[in-house]
Amino acid sequence: MIRRHSICWAVYHYLFAQSDAHFDDSNVQCDNSPMQSTPAAHSQNASRQATILLATVVLAGALLRFYQLGAQPLWMDEIFTGIFVTAQNSWAEVFERILTEPNPLNPFTYVVTHAVLLLFKENSVTLRLLAAFTGLLGVLAIYFVGQAYFNRRVGLIAALLLAIAPMHIFHSREARYYAPVVLFSLLTYYFLHRGLQSGQRKWWLGFTLVSILNIYTHLTTFLVLITQAVYAGFLSLEGFFTGQRRTEATIRFKDIFVPLSISLVVIGFSYLPLVPVAIGWVNGPQAIGNEGNPHGFEISANFFLQLYANFGAGLGLPLSVFVSACLIGMLLAWRREQRPTLFFLLMATLPFILILLARPKHFFAHKYVISLLPLYLIFIAGGIEYLASRITRTLSDWVQWPYLSLASLTVLTALFAGISLQRIQGGYNDEVDQWQAISTFLEANVRPGDAVAVLPTFLVTAQGDEILGYLDPLPQGMGISVPYTTAELSALLSQNERLWIVNEGLLIDPAEAEPLLVWLAGTPALTLSFDEDRHVHYLGKDMPFDALLDEASDFEFTDASLYASLGDLYASEERWEEGLVAYQQAFEMEPDQGIWHMRLGMFYDQMGDSVSAEAEYLTAIELQPDVAGFHAALADHYRLLGKRQDAIDHYTQALQLWRKQIIGRDTTPYSQLWQQHINDLQIGILP
Would you state the pLDDT for residue 379? Predict the structure, then answer.
């Protein structure tokens, strides 16, 4: 029978007294510690405690991923997923979209999600179910990878860090393929590691099967596979360069090179059905070789700063703390066994070299290399463990406490977790995607007899009319058109009493779009804006602007930005009282948002009421003091009033906030304009 205090010894033994510990714990004892208990009893208790701790972490990860999974509206990329896999599509239609549309070739996500929608009711929860489930499994998988590369303590800390990682939470709550990529990449790391260690066929088989799932999930996972092949190939040749006898080096070469080659051949053959589609996508528009697309990947310090900030807890001090822990973990791994560190370094560099060689012109986002995130967190966990051991060694000279090691690791882990928790809200999509907001507004206001048109966009996986059609914003039987000429727009207006034109901002080639925009600018239209790029234009047959503005008072506004936009329209006609009422309604809808106070300040400036304008700018700053644009707006106000020093002070604050939040982007139009105003004011130039 295990004595009363054995549970503390079991936890201690699990966390700190394993054979691979980094410090000597022979002098540390618990009260009434079961020294006479067998090692088997200690191991059993430690295993039980490990299971409890891991289950707690997984439960926390589940809550963060499944809680109110359907609360946020679908954003544009999720809508694409819904259009592809909707239960209304047949299997043939799903595969046709996968094999013909210019997208990054991800059949796994679409096929599985379509199957889920056939089994359950189609909604935002079921669309996101695959991501949430694979995200949760990723938290479990990282434990085993951390245990394989380091030990169980590191695996547990890494699982906690991934469970609360904002980037992973976000992608575990969206109907896309990045959470499955993390899971499958982790499994390939694990199977490859075990295969290289043991040479057993079952691990190579697991590596092969999961790699196939990975490359069928996202095209960028080929970067993972290539890096793993280079790493394993290097290890197969390692014996020839490290002084091993030729016979031993040859055996090692065969034990690694043969199963690796077989795996790569099987994986390659498995992807053959998609090779023609992949070649077409790579050579097509919006992809590799399209020099007209300006959004290609370029290596820069800013890219990697932002990448690892997204991987961890943000920029500044949190980034420094996380990167430092990662470096410590890398040095520790290198001292014990160089292979994990070599693998991480390859994963952190080779994919980007391959990307540069491919010269992609498709926009390259941080999420495309999300497979690197778990490795980064594992090495951070290794650094945390080592730092805790050093703290314990230092304090043990002054403090004799049996739980000192446990306390050191707990406090240090809690510190890193707390840093992440400060940004955990970033793991949720707080902002309603404008397509969803546009759809909701149209659904509330479009009536039979109206026409709805969407200006043609750059979107390659779905057109705007298809997006609105999926969101179902219109009365039964109404359609959505996509006009490409001014004649089509004129015809729509002449054939209908009211016309709603959606301008989502991602227009076709500007030269082609310009005639449409010129026509729109020359026609009486009420422009209601969701943000600076996305608008809905309301037109009526033979209706002047004043009549359209009067009719807008009967609209149901579903977004605070629309009330502010209406207020600005009233201001353009000097209908000040009605404008103030519209802004008041925006405040009532979103009382804690400083943006509406800033916008109202600009409204008062138009009225000529500088006192009220200044009060609104200051209120915006009081509500959200870290928003650079609010300080810049107040600086503009002071500059126009001739208050030179006040303007310089707030332009300076705006620049400091901007540089803090947008590292490396001092050349943006905003920051350049603010700096120019500072320069002008310093030499006495006033507007």
Answer: 92
Residue 316 identity: G
State how far the Cα of 259 lies from the Cα of 261, in Å rounded to an integer: 5
- Higher per-residue pLDDT: 577 or 337: 577
171-221: pLDDT as tens digits: 999 999 999 999 999 999 999 999 988 888 899 999 999 999 999 998 889
Q: How many CA atoms lie within 13 A of 100 on its CB side?
A: 8
What sections of 67-123 are H helices per DSSP? Answer: 76-85, 91-100, 107-119
Question: What is the spatial distance between Cα 256 and Cα 328, in angstroms, rounded to a whole number?
Answer: 30
Phi, psi of 533 (to 5 degrees): -110, -25
Cβ pair 650, 620 in contact under 8 A: no
- Count the neighbouring beta carbons within 10 Å of the beta carbon of residue 161: 30
- Pairing type for strands 451-454 and 526-529 reads unpaired
Token pair of 617 as six digits: 């700018």
Tally the residues of the chain: 687
Q: CB pairs under 8 A, 24+ apart, for 125-130?
A: 125/69, 125/70, 127/74, 127/78, 127/81, 127/82, 127/85, 127/175, 128/69, 128/70, 128/78, 128/173, 128/174, 128/175, 129/69, 130/175, 130/179, 130/180
| DSSP tag of 432 | P
Tokens of 409: 């690791």
The residues, any chain, with a CB within 8 Å of residue 326's CB and separated by 6 or more, are 376, 379, 380, 383
Lowest mean pLDDT among 10-24, 155-169, 176-190: 10-24
At residue 277 the predicted structure's pLDDT band, cuts being 50, 70 and 90, is confident
Distance CA(50)–CA(152), nearest Å, equals: 8
pLDDT, tens only, 251-273: 777 878 888 999 999 999 999 88
Q: Which residue spans within 245-371 are E strands per DSSP?
A: none
Q: How many CB atoms lie within 10 A of CB 313?
A: 26
- Tell me the longest C-alpha to C-alpha distance in the chain: 96
